[in-house]
Amino acid sequence: MSDWVTFIDGIRDDAGKLAKNELKALVSTAVADTNEVVKSVGGAVEKYLSQLASGEITREEFAAYMKQQARLARMRSNKATVQEKARIQRLADGIQTLLIDGLSKLV
Amino acid sequence: MTKFLTRHVAIALCVFLAACASLRVARYDPVTIKSLTDLGPVASRVYDSFVQAQIDQARVDEFELQLEQIEAYERWKEDNEDMVNQVKELRGMFADHLADRKANGPWSSANVQNSKQLFYEALKITVETEAAKNRSRK
Fold first, then answer.
1. Model's pTM, two decimal places?
2. Which residues of chain A register pLDDT less than 70?
3. Best interface-test mutation with B: which of A72, A82, A93 has the largest number of B CBs within 10 A?
4. Are B115 and B47 in contact (CB under 8 A)?
5. Are B90 and B66 in contact (CB under 8 A)?
């Protein structure tokens, strides 16, 4: 069993506020995901949890990493938008060239 | 009949082109790629210095200036809000890290490595965003 799984299992949670099984499943599923980005984020979270379990990092540092992971997610979304815009623009440029150089001569 | 179809296709394409006008992105710029990739080794030295008892203010100032210059350059281009936003996120991440270092003192080597990796990833996404743009110039 991974050290981070043992760590989560070992967290005292008498009130049952922490959904331990859901958290473990979420990380394990992400690590095994076929999507490279999800896999990479899952791997990073798994590493942070292991470091937290071994005392290498503090809870505050862990929280800060998660905040920056959210920032990276925003940036990836922005990159996808640029890729999409560039594809549409290439299509528009191609059509414009076609219209100017070819089609317009026929009209 | 051919003339009729051609005219209608041309009108439809013109409407499409007009709609595309609002979606324009700036063209790929090798200067941006160079500035961003040059930032990597400098960032590495800045983050490594966070383990020291004192902040190397001159190094930090120089790095912040480089980031500011990159943002100013990106702002200067037309249709470039996406890249401006990416650079703002990059600066925001470094600002968070610097604030943490100032508030909590010298970092552990684990914190340096993790934070450096996060910054590298942000830098990589920013470079990829620029590289995703169209390269041909009209």
1. 0.83
2. 1, 17, 100-107
3. A82
4. yes
5. no
